[in-house]
């Protein structure tokens, strides 16, 4: 796959792997601000950000796009196990006045610019549909979330290829629990805050940031037969990293920041470095 591929023809693709968890109620914003790693309080209505939920040691439990619909309603748009995420979050509600539930949503996408949504501002079509702009420098994308049941998947390879190209590692089915936000280079996408105050894992994230202790980060690589979880070895055969997610001949890997990718191997095959595209930060 080339560094600057041309994807798709603008047709709508069914994306059933994308699910929505809704937080609704007077305390929804405060709950999200206390639990999640980005600054939810900075969002206006219809604005969204990349965000996530960490465990106390700073490891990723879930990644998602967080959309503020209004002062009492947030959507977590995720490719992870939405039902498990909702159930886990409910354990921390206590006396907070909010509900947490899955929203019956049909997700579809097309590799073309949105009609009205731009950057971090979504557009709404009445109460039934939301469009989000997931475009980056490699290509334009529109995500549409509408009321209804899940649709059968189309060939959505081109959609997920753009996530890899821009360095968003949360592809469907990918396990992220081994990694911290810095190891996944989520600062590139403005997906976490080190200044907003306390949240689970915040102390680890802030210490890594302010003391410059990040030793590894996310790299985009090209290779053969790449698979999530596969180890990456250096020229002496030492394991130095791991593939996080892969699609065809491209992958995102957590590697030492000073790694010479061209000298590394995975599954016995050589790796080649590819640039991470910009433009997906929100």
What is the element string, with H for helices and E for strands?
A: EEHEEEHEEEEEHHEEEEEEE
CATH topology of the largest domain: Alpha-Beta Plaits
How many distinct beta strands?
17
Provide the helix percentage: 10-25%
Low-confidence segments, given as residue ranges, are 1-7
Instruction: Tell me the CATH superfamily of the largest domain.
Output: Aminomethyltransferase beta-barrel domains
Give the rounded overall mean pLDDT: 94
**What percent strand?**
25-35%
Query: Mind telling me the C-alpha Rg?
Result: 19 Å
Number of helices: 4
Q: Distance between termini?
A: 26 Å
Biggest sheet: strands side by side, in what order?
Answer: 16-15-12-13-14-11-17
Q: At the first level of CATH, what is the class of the largest domain?
A: Alpha Beta
Instruction: Profile the largest sheet.
Output: 7 strands, antiparallel
Whole-number tally of structural domains: 2
How does the overall form come out from the CA principal axes? Answer: globular
The helix/strand class is mainly beta
The CATH architecture designation of the largest domain is 2-Layer Sandwich
In a few lines, what is going on in this structure?
The chain has helices at 28-35, 82-90, 157-166, 202-210; strands spanning 13-14, 19-24, 48-54, 60-70, 73-78, 99-103, 105-110, 123-125, 129-133, 142-147, 216-222, 231-233, 239-247, 250-256, 265-266, 269-270, 272-274. The chain is mainly beta and 282 residues long.
